[in-house]
Amino acid sequence: MKRTFSFELLHTDPSGARRGRVNTPRGVIETPAFMPVGTAATVKTVDPEEVKASGAQILLANTYHLFLRPGHESVARLGGLHTFMAWEKPILTDSGGYQVFSLSSLRKITEEGVAFRSHLDGSARFLSPEIAVRVQERLDSDILMQLDECPPYPAQRDYLARSMELSLRWAARSKAARSDAEDGRALFGIMQGGMERDLRQISAQGLIEIGFDGYALGGLSVGEPKPLMAEVLSYAPELLPRQQPRYLMGVGKPEDLVMAVERGVDMFDCVLPTRNARNGQLFTRRGAFNVKTARFREDPGPADPECRCPACRRFSLAYLHHLFRAREILGHRLMTLHNLQYYQDLMAEMRQAVATDRFAEFKRNFHARRAEGMAEPCP
């Protein structure tokens, strides 16, 4: 039987927010959805069953890191990424492009691809659109990403134009490199163009002409001011097909997720909930705050009374404060479990709000509760 990938647009709220469903051979993803990041085939400090218990429907794994260690062929021989990391639900793998391009002096971009040196041992490596697709297929991920160039911010317009055109040519090569097997995998194209509206339009049209199963918005959350990101999101999602999933890459502050959902984005990923947990920051309905601060030293209450995570059900803020001050690894685990739960709850609340045409009300309440609480800026 042929395994298929598809997207159903179930409802659109008057605000423009969308409620959808991504169907994959390994399960359904109700959207809008947030993907926890499992960089090296693990969400740091927690077990896959704990990630699933938070409500996560899909994980993101990093092609670059798995390409270098343990190697995609090794993962393939061990049964593929799902077996390797004991995660039976869908997995999206990025192409490795962002990590390679962030190496700066360690890489060289050509038309053929990118030559770089491993950050692990300095060995010479090469990644092309074709190799990126091959690696992801061998990992046996469910959603593959094209290799693209992610330009920095700020960047000159002529560089952005050349970079965007290169990414389009790589998109076509990525599409051509796909296996002919009817395996149900999806391949997403990535819109680039920096903060330039006309370049974004050219990129979107070029990707649509090539034809992909879904489309991503790349090149955001790369250091640009928040108003500029908001400006791009005010038009960019609508440049992409209505009947296919739209994925905003690497954006993950709660307020940014709410903004992007309102503008028609369906899928997200970010290291923020897990990375910040390991640095002591909790995301709650009252805002984000750092548990290491002295005011929590004798606080007997939970981090979030409405949260059902293990940290909030069983432990006090005072205990979390103590764990971090004592540098106990349990603090990292409990904080990660909490932040994962918060993000999945936030997405579930948005799905419900969209389905009932109440997204505007949800948005008002979201911001009001944060304003009344203990919000601190997210790093």
From TrEMBL:
Any one Gene Ontology molecular-function term assigned to this protein's record: glycosyltransferase activity
Keywords of this entry: Glycosyltransferase, Metal-binding, Queuosine biosynthesis, Transferase, tRNA processing, Zinc
Active site location: D94, D269
EC code: 2.4.2.29
Domain tRNA-guanine(15) transglycosylase-like intervals: 15-370
Pathway: tRNA modification; tRNA-queuosine biosynthesis
Cofactor(s) needed: Zn(2+)
Binding-site residues, substrate: D94, S95, G96, G97, Y98, D148, Q192, G219
RNA binding: region residues: 250-256, 274-278
Cofactor binding remark: Binds 1 zinc ion per subunit.
Database matches in NCBIfam families: Q_tRNA_tgt, tgt_general
Function statement: Catalyzes the base-exchange of a guanine (G) residue with the queuine precursor 7-aminomethyl-7-deazaguanine (PreQ1) at position 34 (anticodon wobble position) in tRNAs with GU(N) anticodons (tRNA-Asp, -Asn, -His and -Tyr). Catalysis occurs through a double-displacement mechanism. The nucleophile active site attacks the C1' of nucleotide 34 to detach the guanine base from the RNA, forming a covalent enzyme-RNA intermediate. The proton acceptor active site deprotonates the incoming PreQ1, allowing a nucleophilic attack on the C1' of the ribose to form the product.
Protein name: Queuine tRNA-ribosyltransferase
UniProt source species: Candidatus Magnetaquiglobus chichijimensis
Gene name of the encoded protein: tgt
